[in-house]
Amino acid sequence: MSEIPRREFVRRSVVGAGALVIGFDVASGEWAVAGQRTSRLARGFPRFDGALRTGADARRAVADDFGHIVHRRPLAVLEPGSVDDVVRLLRFARREGIDVAARGEGHSGFGQSQVRAGVVIDMSKRSRIHKVGRTIADVDAGVTWRALLDSTLDKNLAPPVLTDYQDLSVGGTLSVGGIGGAGFRHGAQVDNVLALEVVTGQGQRLRCSRTRSPKLFDAMLAGLGQCGVITRAVLRLRPAPTRVRLFDLLYVDLATFAADARAVVRDGRFDTLQGLVVPSPAGGWAYLLEATSSSVRGDDELLAGLRDVRDQATITDMPFAAYATRLDQTVAAQKQSGDWQRPHPWFGVWLPDRHAEAFTANVLSKLTLRDTGGGPILLYPTLSKAFKQPLLRIPSSELVWQFDILRTALPTTAGAQEMVKNNRRLFEQARRVGGFDYPVGATPISPSDWQRHFGDAWSGFVRAKHRYDPAGILTPGQGVFAARS
User: Fold this and answer.
1) What is the bridge-based pairing of β-strands 129-132 and 136-140?
2) Residues 4-124, CATH architecture
3) Which band of pLDDT confidence, cut at 50, 70 and 90, is reported for residue 265?
């Protein structure tokens, strides 16, 4: 749909209050209202248990995200006091043709959770942990993984898969996938969901699981917020180790690093496995294999068969909680230095095993620290059979590799937009060798790209969109479906 239904909606709601809408600024997403404060725009909305914020500060805050690249200002921000508020909003928005996006912690990188001249639902206000049992946790979608982990560790439990950064919302990561070092054992976070509560784009509050409304369940997990808003989730839990042994294994050679990484993923000797590309003291790049074990096996047994790394190994015993939050000091330093507030044009793809080394070597041969702004580069394999959800797209090979350049645009580096252009070039190169985008970064993706991305799952995804969000109002910032006309 065009902007006209929104324009007419606001004109009706504001003119009815005695104000005059004199224009709309497409660039800023702002309505110009003669003789009327912005907060009066709320008069056209239904009543909510929570708060509908229409002030400039509230709207400005959600017109940005962790990427600090895209800025779209909404008409209003809903802080829901209940799930019924989400129902009321989506029914109203569908009727009036207003776009809506749910936002958790705002850690998206390219405006995915933003919406111009629509409404952002601040899901961080829905953050209750309803239950932590012996095998499951029942939580609101706005709960962060840190808060959940704090609750589960009291019972010596933890989610099977944790991302490296814990201050992300449950609903946010379940909308894209949620990957971590235990993925080769347990898949992604979406593979460890038992049930969801969802409000669809039609304003229906539904529960779904693998046996109850399974098509909606599959459409929501890694579904980029296209069919509904996740409001609550039942998650699988596992016993958590008290302590882990962390192995940092340094390699100077990509081929040796890759061979050892493949070997330990296949034989499962470690509990978690990740990899980093790091600057080499001799110039160029080196490779760090980061693995943990909570078993009683000795170091010699765990390192058996790995090539030339014992002398380059750093081995550290630590509490599991410290390992799970090991990035906290780094994040705190970035926030203090101001780097956290700078643009983050992140790039991330899944690569098929047979092309991973050649693709990586080619990219790294042309990549410098200036191109990354000092941000980390992630590189490690995982077993594809652990990933079950159809909308989390990965290559069809036994092993798939995660390759991420987590860029920061600093004053001394290329600008954010140049980095975004480079991300697009790298994405096209990865796609030519069978790679897939991991949709959390700053890579421009068109609707036709998305259709190619989802492949044989596309037709089912389209049917789900038409069924659960027939007005096409949900999460336009992902750019999955063509804009309404």
Assistant:
1) antiparallel
2) 2-Layer Sandwich (3.30)
3) very high
Q: Give the three-class secondary structure for 196.
A: strand
C-alpha to C-alpha distance for 84 and 417, rounded to whole angstroms: 40
Give which of 143, 105, 144 is closest to 122, Cα–Cα: 105
Task: Tell how strand 436-437 and strand 347-352 pair up.
Answer: antiparallel
Give yes or no for a contact between 213 and 200, defined as CB atoms under 8 angstroms apart: no
Confirm whether pTM is higher than 0.70. Answer: yes
CB-CB contact of 159 with 168 (8 Å): no
DSSP character string of 229-282: EEEEEEEE-EEPPSEEEEEEEEES-HHHHHHHHHHHHHHT-SSEEEEEEEE-TT
Per residue in 68-119, pLDDT (tens digit) is 999 999 999 999 999 999 999 999 999 999 999 999 999 999 999 999 999 9
Q: What is the CA radius of gyration of the chain?
A: 23
Which ranges in the chain are annotated with CATH 3.30.465.10? 129-240
Which pair of tokens denotes residue 250? 């340094």
Cα–Cα dist 442/429, whole Å: 16
User: CB atoms < 10 A from the CB of 400, how many?
Assistant: 25
The token duo for 103 is 């936002």
Where does CATH 3.30.43.10 sit in the chain?
4-124
Residue 25, pLDDT score: 40
Residue 246 reports pLDDT greater than 80: yes
Q: Per residue in 343-391, pLDDT tens?
A: 999 999 999 999 999 999 999 999 999 999 999 999 999 999 999 999 9
Over the stretch 385-444, which tens digit does the pLDDT of each residue have? 999 999 999 999 999 999 999 999 998 888 999 999 999 999 999 999 999 999 999 999
Classify domain 129-240 by CATH number.
3.30.465.10
What is the DSSP code string of 357-426? HHHHHHHHHT--HHHHTT--EEEEEEEGGG---TTS---SSSEEEEEEE-----TTS--HHHHHHHHHHH
Alpha-carbon separation of residue 10 from 24, 201, 211, 325 (angstroms): 10, 21, 42, 45
Helix intervals (H) in 101-213: 145-153, 170-176, 183-186
Distance CA 296, CA 70 (A): 49
CATH numeric code, 243-447: 3.40.462.10
Rounded mean pLDDT of 445-470? 97
